[in-house]
Every structure is written in structure tokens, then in C-alpha cells.
Amino acid sequence: MRIYHSNELLIVVALSLGVALAGTAEAATLSDLVAPDTEPEVLGTGYGFCEGPAADAQGNVYFSDGKKDTIHFYEVGKPVVPFVTDALDANGMMFNARGELIVCQGAAFTVFAHDVKTKKRRALADKIDGGRFNEPNDLTIDRLGGFYFTDPNYRHRGQETVRKEDAYYCSADGKITRVSTVCRTPNGVLLTADDKTLYLADNRGKCIYKYDVLGPGKLAGETMWIDLGAGPDGMTLDEHGNLYVCCNRGKVKIYDSAGKSIGTLDVVASNACFGGPDFKTLYLTSWDKFVAVQMKVTGVKPLPIREKQRMGANDE
After folding, report:
1. pLDDT tops 70 at residue 29
2. Any residues with CB less than 8 A from the CB of 5 and at least 6 apart, and which?
């Protein structure tokens, strides 16, 4: 067991031997993922409840504070500053290929696209079957501009549940379809970098479901993939396809692409993303804190970078 200390956090890294990294034949432990002798750095504190970290193409990170209706911005090496202060119960966020910040705003019952330069926003998904959503929570975006999002109801503002808590897909042209009804309380949702696999977190079910993606909004092969023993929240992926599942008091559980446990970062976290200039920093929203942990591995890069690289490859 290796222990990392800081003034405000204690991260106990439980090492799990005999697990293979995706794409290699070598046994892997958390020491293969986490930078040696690293200490978690608290970049900001005093928030109501942090969520939804999302890295832009430069590796800067936006994160939400739903209790205070605020989205914050962190540029590497500079203090955290507010981005907007009118994002009602902002939660999960991610950048689309156009560089817009897509945001679930639970108390607005809407998913918005934010222009980060002008701070103007437009509604992308605000109703289905003639009525509002419960409380849009988290989302993941495909390269075609569509996105999957979850709609549980944690009653953050005391609102009534108006429909079953399910997961949806909103196409690039705004058509919304229900794509999963299996979860008791759907929460985190995440596509792999190739858009071929979707992970869906069931918070009350304490598990991760896995789907094959046949096309935009078309899922197959529903499988209860990982029994976590803790309620999952947000998720992120590294370059090897390892899945980082934030379970709040259940800490951050890491699994390889075969669903085998690599280990646990023993830190309370609601959500995570990779960022920084080289995308080797794991940024964690730790309730009232925003935290960075240096890693050996690179995270899956934001869509604006991946699409630019793909278009460049197609031009060659």
C-alpha cells in the first residue's frame, strides 16, 4: 500500500496485482497509472458541491458548483475564477467538437450549449413527450454532435419526479429519444473515444452497465458490466481504456477495459476528467474542493482535439 499525503487530503492507493493493462500483457497496478511520489494538490475550496469537470482543447478545466448555480474556470497555473453565475444546478459538462461547453442544468430541466467566448447559451434539450425532464445530470457527446444524457431526480431544488428516471439521446438536429430504461437512478454516462461503447452508471443500483453503440442513439448488448458495491457518479477514461468511476464516499474505483479492478484512489470524488497541457493530470471534484493528481497515463483528449486529429489524418 502506498500512501500520499497533503494538508487537506489523504489518498490511499490500494494496489491490485495481476491485472493487465488494456492492450498489454503486463500486470498493472495503480503505480503504473499514478505518478511516483505524487501529492494531491487542492486548487480551490469552499464550494457548495463540485461536479462536472470538463477540459477544453488547451487542457484548462471548467467545473460546476450546482448548489451555487456557478460554473468555474481553471487555467493551469492560475487561480480558479467564476465563468458564469446563473447556471441553475449545473452538473455534468463536456465540450463538443465545435468547442461549445455542453451543460446539464438540473434546476432548469435543460441541457444547454455555452459559447465560452461570449458566454451566450442556447437550449439543446428541454422537453420530451410534451413535458419537462426531471433533473438532467450528466452527458457524453459523440463526434457527430449528438449526446447521451441521464435524467434522474435527486430533488436538489425539491422538484417532483415527472417521469421515469431514464437515459436519452439528443441528435445533432435536436431529436430526443429514450435509449435506456434499466437504471434505478441513472447518473454518469460516458462514451469511449471511438464512439463504439457506452458506459452508464446506476447510482442506486451500484453498478455500471455497458452497451454496444451501433450508431447515433442506437444501443445494443445491454450488460450489467461491473458490480461496484457503491453508488457511482461521474466517470472518465485514460488512453488505455481504463475506466475511472467516482463513487463519492466509495472513492474512485478504476477498471481496465475488460472490467477487471486495477485499484482504488481513496479520495472522495463526485467526478473526474483528465486535463493540463499534456492531459496527464487527473482533476477531481471532491465535494467542496477541486483537486489535481499527477498521473503517468494520458487521458482521453477532448472532442475538439480528437476531431482535429481525425480530420488531419483524413487529409493525408
Report:
1. yes
2. 39
Which pLDDT belongs to residue 113?
Answer: 98
pTM above 0.85, yes or no: yes
Candidates 208, 134, 145, 143; CA nearest to 178 is: 134
The per-residue b/e assignment along 152-187, b for 16 or more CB within 10 angstroms, e otherwise, is: bbbebeebeeeeebbbbbbeeeeebeebbeebebbb
The predicted-structure confidence for 219-241, as pLDDT tens digits, reads as follows: 999 999 999 999 999 999 999 99
Three-state DSSP class for 120? coil
Q: How far apart are CA 49 and CA 226, in angstroms?
A: 27
Does domain 2-315 bear CATH number 2.120.10.30? yes
Residue 204 backbone class (left: φ over 0; alpha: ψ -120 to 50; beta: rest): alpha
Residues 178, 182, 186, 192, Cα dihedral to 10° = -80
Residue type, 115: D
Contact predicate 165/134, CB 8 Å:
yes
Q: Which of 253, 251, 273 is nearest to 262 (CA)?
A: 253
Percent of the chain with pLDDT over 90: 85
